[in-house]
Design goal:
This protein has 653 residues and is of the alpha+beta class.
Length: 653
């Protein structure tokens, strides 16, 4: 029995042993009861001999739960399996709730009786209630809150309209798009002081608003204005982050609702052009308007009749909203250069302040033009195993920008990366982490547009689905891509040329900087292919500790080495990397530089990454004695990180 120090409504006062028959279900949350397996890992209670992988847990949820539900794992010490559940969250694209390390799952109910009880994490040492840990999908993780509120160990549904904080605004979401809306909201930076941004979905000529009960309805302009009543909108600039419908009738209705929103709030409402959308420009943490064809276009303003004076923002032809004061110099320059009207595209502004010399002529006009496309045959290969044949590729030469965290002199050594592809963008302001960029020239067949990509993307790459105006440069086609020159990009998206590298071939260099394992890409051959297999590892007997990044494994018992301990391990399916097979896989990819061949030359057969240490169990331990391995008596069997600290060097049996 545990008493809490906090006295409040419905706080856990009494805890009981977890009983599935008395468990309280929460709408929108799928509970999965797991237990620690005798051979390590987690298992379903009625199948204790089958440790679960992330794919197996995902299949359980999809077969048993609702696809729109978050998942709560009812098991002790859930945070010890953060990597496992992070992978599950990525596969499901939903949050996963787990218990903290050192906590057991108990039941509590404030009311006396036989009703259902809440599951709570209880610290096994202090006997104090602890809160659940929310694991968000790795590629969509943010500091923003989840669908549920956590109240002293109890998971409670939120109420009201689904709204997420946005810098200078709010995101209106539904259950279906909550996770992706939350991720994109976190990436948007703050605009000008007078700009308020509302992210909302357009539906049936109105604005789609969801509530935490799981229902949704379409609001008109007046209803949306009432919903936003707590925001200081009168006289402000209100930007709607939405995608217009394609139906002309719905577009006409949405125009009327946008105008009604402007009249009701007294704000100037900005939207992308009808039929268009707004996309996030990562390099600027800003929004850009696109037309129906996906090209940058000016924002459209809906002005209230009571508006006093002109808008404080100016819509540029590159799809941005900028303060009028910041656009004066650019406007004057455009007017002087041509009296016949605004240019079709805005050249990238100079880095130097007004009055100084302009950048060299090598600065390109942005965004760069799109190439025509052509479909390839079914015998085409690209490198990544998940990339199917017969993709659409560029049918003509074009140029684009690639992030380059190296100087121009080292581009020939390869761009750091752990994937068998690079990403290229037509606009450098869309390049993630693009403070230094290289302009590349791509020959026909060297790039695949992300907008028409046909592939079953791995969980770690699901975030790439939303990229627009981006091109995938697969490793097997990098011989068709060469570097042209390099640029520095400041926080406003302005380019400064830093060097020429005409004709330098583009390569990928796998290394620790890219967080790869042993200098290998993510695309490797795993071992064992099925079941659990035996392998051996050597550790120094005196300073006994696991390597920080990876551990070399042997398929067979190696020769005796004085001063070493030999560990006989049980390796589950796919937990180790088969170096020999991986070297064969990478051999045809001449533009990829990795450590596969050096490792093979050093006769390294298998590699165990540090993330897989907890999933591998120690079966036996041997020490070197003369010219033989002698078994050490007494060491416990269990997960590798738990057994190694307990090992000593006692006398052999």
């Amino acid at each position: 029995m545990t008493r809490t120090t906090a006295a409040g409504f419905d706080k856990p006062q009494t805890t009981h042993r977890f009983d599935p028959r008395r468990h309280r279900r929460i709408t929108g949350l799928f509970d999965l009861w797991l237990e620690p397996g005798v051979h390590g890992g987690l298992v379903v209670p009625d199948r204790p001999d089958r440790p679960l992988t992330a794919s197996a847990i995902t299949d359980l949820v999809r077969r048993s739960g609702e696809t729109a539900d978050d998942v709560r794992i009812l098991t002790q010490d859930g945070a010890r399996h953060t990597d496992l559940f992070g992978e599950v969250a990525g596969l499901l694209a939903h949050d996963v709730l787990v218990s903290p390390d050192g906590a057991v799952i108990r039941h509590h109910d404030r009311q006396v009786g036989n009703g259902p009880r809440h599951a709570i994490p209880l610290d096994r040492t202090t006997r104090q209630v602890r809160d659940w840990i929310v694991i968000q999908p790795p590629e969509l993780a943010t500091p923003l809150p989840g669908w549920f509120t956590l109240d002293h160990g109890v998971v409670r549904p939120r109420t009201g309209v689904v709204g997420l904080p946005l810098q200078g605004g709010v995101v209106l979401a539904t259950r279906a798009d909550f996770v992706t809306r939350r991720a994109t909201a976190h990436r948007l930076g703050a605009g000008s002081d007078a700009l308020v941004t509302i992210a909302v979905t357009a539906r049936s000529g109105g604005f789609l608003v969801g509530d935490y009960g799981g229902t949704q309805r379409v609001y008109d302009g007046g209803q949306l204005a009432a919903l936003l009543g707590d925001l200081p909108l009168y006289g402000s600039e209100l930007r709607l982050w939405l995608t217009w419908p394609s139906d002309p009738d719905e577009q006409q209705r949405l125009r009327r609702q946008a105008q009604e929103l402007a009249e009701t709030t007294g704000a100037t409402v900005w939207t992308p052009p009808p039929g268009g959308s707004a996309e996030l420009v990562d390099g600027r943490q800003d929004l850009r308007a696109l037309d129906q064809a996906g090209e940058p276009a000016e924002w459209q303003a809906f002005r209230p009749r009571c508006a006093l004076g002109p808008p404080t923002l100016h819509a540029t032809s590159t799809g941005l909203l900028v303060p009028v004061s910041a656009d004066v110099v650019g406007t004057a320059t455009s007017t002087t250069a041509s009296d016949s009207g605004p240019p079709t595209t805005d050249p990238l502004p100079a880095v130097e302040p007004p009055g100084t010399a302009q950048p060299p002529s090598t600065v390109p006009v942005l965004p760069l033009p799109r190439p025509a496309l052509a479909a390839e045959n079914r015998r085409a290969t690209y490198g990544p195993a998940w990339l199917s044949a017969a993709q659409q590729v560029n049918a003509e030469q074009f140029e684009a920008f690639v992030a380059a965290p190296v100087d121009a002199a080292s581009i020939a050594d390869g761009l750091p990366g752990a994937e068998l592809f690079l990403l290229a963008f037509l606009d450098p302001r869309s390049v993630p982490d693009g403070a230094r960029q290289v302009r590349v020239r791509v020959e026909p067949g060297g790039a695949i547009p992300m907008a028409v990509l046909r592939a079953a993307l791995p969980a770690r790459l699901q975030h790439l689905r939303g990229l627009r105006e981006a091109y995938l440069l697969p490793a097997a086609r990098l011989d068709r891509t060469s570097a042209v020159d390099t640029f520095d990009v400041d926080h406003t998206g302005r380019l400064t040329p830093t060097g020429d590298c005409e004709g330098e071939p583009l390569r990928i260099r796998c290394g620790s900087r890219a967080r790869s394992i042993a200098g290998l890409p993510h695309e490797v051959r795993r071992w064992p292919a099925f079941g659990t297999r035996r392998a051996y590892a050597l550790l120094p007997a005196r300073r006994l500790q696991l390597p920080r990044n990876w551990l070399r494994l042997h398929r067979r018992q190696p020769a005796v080495q004085p001063g070493r301990l030999l560990l006989e391990l049980q390796v589950p399916r796919g937990r180790a990397i088969d170096v020999m097979s991986t070297a064969d896989l990478l051999a045809p990819l001449a533009q990829v530089r990795s450590q596969a061949e050096p490792l093979r030359a050093a006769q390294v057969e298998l590699i165990l990454g540090s993330r897989s240490y907890p999933r591998v169990r120690v079966r036996r331990v041997y020490r070197a004695e003369a010219d033989a391995w002698l078994r050490v008596a007494g060491p416990p069997m269990g997960p590798l990180p738990s057994v190694v600290p307990q090992l000593q060097t006692p006398a052999p049996t």
